[in-house]
């Protein structure tokens, strides 16, 4: 689990194909304190497992499904990426609950200056926008952000200078593709509401007092 509060940048140093998947070597701009092999690190919002660790450099295996769902199909050596180490239960939850399981991608269609903020509009498909609400949370390239406005095919964000400076969204021009993870809670609510009531009813347990007595427990 993650919070969507980006800790810093990393740089893709190497990409090696592994069948239909890939292995990325990434160098972080900050010390990877307390990270060990097997730990999760969110790379542009995608939860990946560190399989090699050498100082600030680490390697991750990227599965074919992850490549299909994310911007990693277009990534290249030298790309700057957002990094966040996994949430600890003792940490403050400053952003929102981010699983690191990217739902799909969106495209930045416009960026407009408004006072001290940059208004960013991102186009997405309807299967993503259905899980977004005005003033709800969304993770864009792993960044926890608040939705200003939403339509069936676009949503709008207000990016403050601090966020623009320390994350990739401040550097990406219109036309850039970004990873999108919608709010986890909405997906569970939809699944529950769409499940037939008969399937929701708890089934009676075969274990009762008579069963226990018959088996010699009473």
UniProtKB/TrEMBL annotation:
Annotated EC: 2.5.1.9
Record carries keyword Nucleotide-binding: no
Gene3D superfamilies: 2.40.30.20
Domain Lumazine-binding: from-to ranges: 1-96, 97-193
GO process terms (BP): riboflavin biosynthetic process
Functional description taken from the UniProt entry: Catalyzes the dismutation of two molecules of 6,7-dimethyl-8-ribityllumazine, resulting in the formation of riboflavin and 5-amino-6-(D-ribitylamino)uracil.
Protein's recorded name: Riboflavin synthase
